[in-house]
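Why does residue order matter? Because the sequence determines the fold. Keep that principle in mind as you read this record.
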Amino acid sequence: MELHYTSTRNSDVRVTASQAILKGLAPDGGLFVPESLPSLHASMEEIKEMTYQETAYEVMKQFLTDFTEEELKTCINRAYDSKFDTEEIAPLVKVDDTYYLELFHGATIAFKDMALSILPHLLTMSAKKNQAEDEIVILTATSGDTGKAAMSGFADVKGTKIIVFYPKNGVSKVQELQMVTQKGSNVDVVAIHGNFDQAQSGVKAMFEDQELAEELHARGYRFSSANSINIGRLVPQIVYYVYAYARLLKYEEIEEGEQINIVVPTGNFGNILAAYYAKQMGVPIDRLVCASNTNKVLFDFFQSGTYDKNRDFVLTSSPSMDILISSNLERLIYLASGEDADETKRLMEELKAAGCYTVSPKMQEMLSDFEAGYTDEEGTKETIRNVYKRTGYVMDTHTAVASHVCEEYKRKSGDMKKCVIASTASPYKFVHSVMEALEGSMEEGDELELLPKLQEASGTEMPQAVKDILDARILHHIECDVEQMKNTVKQILGVEA
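Structure:
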């Protein structure tokens, strides 16, 4: 049966999966959501014998129902190939009594590769299926990882251009170098003088600007998104949670039907929402633990029912989580409201106007699958250092936030179910912060000079993605103020600003 998609803000919207992927964002500013969440058709006993690619097909065919088997398998096989440096694609590593789902073995050493390796193929396939002749302009805001993964995925893909906005001084040195050295005739990178939330809001404003859309259409362009607001990026993320449970079963770490907990370091809420969708599909997941850094807007929301972005924005050592507007939370709010598009729209308008909203007690009750915790900078460092001293395992700063929150949750709740932590980036991506945690202090200097030290400490080889940037030429130099984002896009596209 074909699954259609509607908007979180307008129940009259009804599109196919390929149309939702192609559009990226609903015309009313809402996010596309499936009209109903499908179930897995295969049992976990069957899935545990599947490869990652086979698992991806089993999950994604339930969501992307207007793709043929051949179309979907072609996209999957092109995405999950030798660009990953491990055969398993997403290895599950046991450290003490906790399982780290390593999602950073792709081309840009961050979890965004898991979805952004396939999105270009889904998007170009969607364009063909809908006879879309306009050139697709991928417009994306990044807090560090999405940008590089998206550029890597879309570089020189025929019929597409990609423009990425990132906050100047708001990403790590390795993250920035990965972006500004990206090759590709269709790739542009812009550093904004602002933070990620401002970049994300600027991008969303351009999506909602109908006058701009008409102006670009006249020149043969249409916008789409590589951010997790695009359902074509969210669906592939569900796969690795299904795969992780199946691996635990295969390795006989759990019994069939045994519930596990999942802990996710998150700022924009897409990664943990994918875990929630996996649970709704039938994966035996009990608690979904949302781990925040000092910018703990999500922690406060789950504690109080009030989402309030009116607070100081803090730059931390886990910059991909330095976010105060968690755009994917809107999809959860929609479900918690009983799929009430009018109520969701009202709350999102409140957020835009006043910077905050409060959900009803009934809606808060609907969020009971979620727990939340946070840690500060010192807690992040301590976790990296302590786990390394105890086990020799080195993790990045974002994974450390989740690891700290996981241990705190166990201690406070007494819940001793097996726990899977989403390990979202390689420690090499945040080498200065990781080495500072391991050594206790760190003099200011060239961050890249610390890479051999990290290689020695971790006993792991420096990833190719890092080696590639060491001698790469900087190709992108554009910077702009936040209010100049729209004009900058027009200039890049050759549309008079």
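The chain has a mean pLDDT of 95.
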